[in-house]
Amino acid sequence: MVKPEVPAVTLNYGIFIQNVIDFLIVAFVIFLMVKLSNQLQKKKEDIAEKQHVPSPEETLLREIRDLLKEKQQL
Q1: pTM of the predicted model, to two decimals?
Q2: What is the pLDDT of residues 19-73, one digit of tens each?
Q3: 20 to 30 A from 16, CA-CA: which of 24, 32, 41, 50?
Q4: Could you give the maximum distance between any two Cα atoms of the chain, in Å?
């Protein structure tokens, strides 16, 4: 009776290390992309703040405030 050959047990630690390295590279690239995206969004918000044009409601409220201050000073 012939015994079938049992395949040798192998430790594929090289594949595991390669997967860990690949994961770290992808995670780092995604981190950089998110960081860059956040910086660009912040710059857009800063530019929008500098170019802020008051709405008609804000203008009207400011005028009312100024009139009330003048009335209190009299």
Answers
A1: 0.54
A2: 999 999 999 999 999 999 999 999 988 887 788 778 899 999 999 999 999 999 8
A3: 32
A4: 118
Encoded tokens for 48: 């929008």
Residue 58: both structure tokens together: 């804000």
CA 7 vs CA 1, 3, 13, 23: distances in Å: 19, 12, 18, 30
Of 45, 47, 26, 25, which is closest to residue 37 (Cα–Cα)?
45
Dihedral sign of CA atoms 61, 62, 67, 72 in order: positive
Do residues 54 and 62 lie in contact, with contact meaning Cβ atoms separated by under 8 Å? Answer: yes
